[in-house]
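ok so for the tutorial part 2 we go from a plain amino acid sequence to predicted structure tokens. step 1 is just haveing the sequence, like this:
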Amino acid sequence: MEENKEITKKGTTRRTFLKNTGMTVGGIVLGGAVGSLFGVNAETTSKSSAHPASPALTVNPAEALMFFTPEQYQLTQAAAERIYPKDENGPGAMELNAAIYIDHQLAGSWGINAKEYMSGPFYEAEETQGSQIRILRKDLFLLGLKALDSYSTKKFDARFVDLEAEQQDQVLTDFSEDKAPKISSVRSSNFFNLLRTLTIEGVYADPLYGGNKNMEGWAMRKFPGSRMSYTQEIQKEEFVKLDPQGLNSHMGH
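step 2 — the prediction. this is what the tokens look like for a chain of 253 residues:
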């Protein structure tokens, strides 16, 4: 009997300790860091049910840097915003997360030209030909960002992100017209064209790839997004307005 009382006493003490320190959720023991993610505390734990609701997802997991440093990301945001600025029609590239899209593209196989022939010989390409550049896209982009800052400092005595909008436009215009110095033997217009293409893609690509936040880029164009079928809509005589849908909307089909 004495032995059973001792076991009960120890068990009660252990359970009391866990409850008082807020380390249990539905009978599961959680460490301090994990417990904090669930918002567990002594007061709420004692009232929680055996099957607590899963915590709501409040952020898009795609909104995370995979390639840029914070400074490179901010510079890309500023440049992309001047290519696709916010106006009365809706948000600009910055709000639409175009820079996140660019970051993810450069971090993947596309950034290292994985599916392209990258060996010599290299020639000066005609306007009607594809790129003959030997530098990888990710490297060209990073060198281009450095060139943006260097050129801005030389022309306006300030970093690109610190310039007025009109000054930023002038710098980008100079890059687009090859008035800026070459970037490691590559014309500055090549970097500008890469930046511009990625910005537009980031504004209008499926949110799955990090940009087009909340499908607002599509909404401005009244584009319905990715849909399995338009059979019912095309049979109607009047225009049918459809809210945009992303690729993840098909997960339940």
